Amino acid sequence: MEEKYYEVLTKIQEADGIVIGASNGLSISEGIHIFADDSSFQENFGDFREKYGFRSIIQGCFYPFPSEEEKWAFFSRMYNYFLYKTEASPVMKNLYELVKDKNYFVVTSNIDNHFRQAGFPQERLFEIEGNCRNLQCMNGCHNQIYPGDEILSKMAKSQENGKVPLDLIPKCPECGGLMQVHIEVDRNFLKGESWQTSYQAYQDFTRKAHGKKLVLLELGVGARNQLIKAPFMRLTNIEEYATYITLNKGELYIPDEIAAKSIGINGDTAEVLQQLVQMK
Ligand SMILES: [Zn+2]
Q1: What pLDDT was estimated at residue 223?
Q2: What is residue 1's predicted lDDT score, i.e. its pLDDT?
């Protein structure tokens, strides 16, 4: 095992570019499981669970709430749940520590803002499915994304009986219509200028890495993931000096055609990252 860790560290140290790909499994290693009906969900969302019958944060994100007061009660609670700790988790701190001096880029489907919180700059980050702190017009009347921190924390604090006060409910500054959190829960999700800019930055990063030593570091991405995993495998396949490193607990999947260029660690991501930083 130790040998494998050194191999990973050497690849990271020698890399000209590192692309980090992260999904739900990384959040789970931080203790946040958006698909689970666990004690943390019951403790923080128990009133919603009882009232509407949904059994996880992700089900709540897709729930057709009967009113805006109730919808915003949920989404502001979720915002608060992801971000009430101002300090990043040890997992995210270790990840940042591991790559901060390198040339890196992050692509993630996580919506919890934890990369930003740990110090990863926005220009090195592509949040494919959005971020729970941002708002958009629900009608998509224009493409602007708005920072929602202030209103979301206010709504999280002042909800009663599962509702936020009417006067706190955000309205689109352009059309006056309803708004929603900028996360991909339906077809309204805007892929406007800021989304396109991040997407382009990701494309540019991998293009510039062509022919160089590229590390694709995948954290907690499921075997069937098409958004993040499929492009990583394609890049590993076509790039001569690419290395695919995957950390995943119990769901390690490396296809034969890239096996020679791959390192897989089947273990608790939190512990593996801690170990890597200590050995650095
Ligand atoms: Zn609008």
Answers
A1: 83
A2: 73
